[in-house]
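in:
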C-alpha cells in the first residue's frame, strides 16, 4: 500500500481506541501514513475521500465520526 500521508516522527497512537478501528484497519491506516489521533482529527474532506477510496470505506470515517473521537483521544493524551 502506498502511503498517502507522511507519518509524523515519534510514537504512533493506539488508533484501535477509535470506534470501528481494529488491528487490521489500524495496520492499513499506518501503511497509509496515518499514525496519530491528531492526523485523524485534522483530516480534510478531500483527505477523507482519499482514505475512503484507498480502503473502500464508503463513508465510514464520517459515519463513525472518527474526527471527533480522535480529537477527544488526542486531548486526553496531552
Amino acid at each position: 500500500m502506498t502511503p498517502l500521508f507522511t507519518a509524523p516522527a515519534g510514537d504512533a497512537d493506539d488508533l484501535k481506541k477509535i470506534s470501528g478501528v481494529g488491528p487490521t484497519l489500524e495496520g492499513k491506516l499506518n501503511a497509509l501514513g496515518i499514525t496519530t489521533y491528531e492526523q485523524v482529527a485534522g483530516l480534510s474532506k478531500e483527505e477523507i475521500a482519499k482514505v475512503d477510496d484507498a480502503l473502500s470505506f464508503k463513508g465510514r470515517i464520517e459515519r463513525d465520526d472518527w474526527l471527533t473521537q480522535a480529537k477527544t483521544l488526542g486531548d486526553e493524551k496531552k
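note: The chain has a mean pLDDT of 94.
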